[in-house]
Amino acid sequence: MNSGTVISSSVIGNGHSVSGTDYTNNIGGLIAHLKSGDVDNCFVLLGDGSVKGGVDSVGGLIGLCGDDESSCSVSNCSFSGHVSVGEDVYYVGGLIGEIYDGSVVNSSVSGSVSGGASVDSVGGLIGWIENNGKIENCSIHLDGDVTSGGTSSHTSYLGGFIGYMKSGTVISSSVIGNDHSVSGSGETDYVGGFIGHMNSGTVIS
Predict the structure, then answer these.
(1) Whose CA is closest to 113, among 71, 162, 70?
(2) Contact (Cβ atoms closer than 8 angstroms) between residue 82 and residue 112
(3) Residue 14: which residues within 8 A CB-CB, separation 6 or more?
(4) Can you name the residues that pair with 144 across neighbouring β-strands?
């Protein structure tokens, strides 16, 4: 989707999955790539189903949000289910795989997120925030773990909320573990219960 607005849309999977192959760039439960625009009051409800596969950006709601020249905003959205990828994927998030200059407000994830070996960044809400992202009043309710596996030749980031944040602001947001965990295996470089690695930015309670 090059640009536009998506309002009050839903995907109800009832245990089924949204999946791509090892050659699919971006995968999202609702939108694979939104170059610019707004997504409001949308949800993806998969139950025991998953969003899985891909090689670039994978997210429960949106795979890739924005790009080098454009931004997007997400508000009042949710994902319920599991996001699961194999090896050699760049960015994986429960809601959004990767977001550029944009905002996510009043949105949530209920489920689990897992990445295999040589995955760049895994986050319960967002895998990778590129520039000046604003995340406000968002939450993760884990009913499974947030996991990733690293290798000796590959830098990887794992966070219960955000895997890697280049710059941005996080306000009034939380991760609720529900007896589940955030855990890296193999040689995962950075593991954080909230953020795996923050290059610059602000976190406000």
Answers:
(1) 162
(2) yes
(3) 46, 47, 49
(4) none
Helix (H, G, I), strand (E, B) or coil at 166: coil
Tell me the sheet residues that pair with 134: 103, 169
Length of the chain as a residue count: 205
154: Cα within 13 Å, side-chain hemisphere: 21
Question: pLDDT tens for residues 113-147?
Answer: 988 777 889 999 999 998 888 999 999 998 888 98
Q: How many CB atoms lie within 10 A of CB 166?
A: 16
pLDDT tens-digit series, residues 31-53: 999 988 899 999 999 988 889 88
Closest CA to 66 of 116, 2, 123, 145: 2
H-helix or E-strand spanning residue 196: strand 195-198
Q: Which long-range contacts (CB under 8 A, 24 or more apart) does 178-183 make?
A: 178/141, 178/142, 178/143, 180/112, 180/142, 180/143, 180/144, 180/145, 180/146, 181/145, 181/146, 182/124, 182/145, 182/146, 182/147, 182/158, 183/145, 183/146, 183/147, 183/158
Q: Let me know how many helices (H) and strands (E) the chain has, helices first.
A: 0, 27
> pTM of the prediction?
0.93
182 DSSP β-pair partners: 146
Output the CA angle 94-95-96, nearest 5 degrees. 105
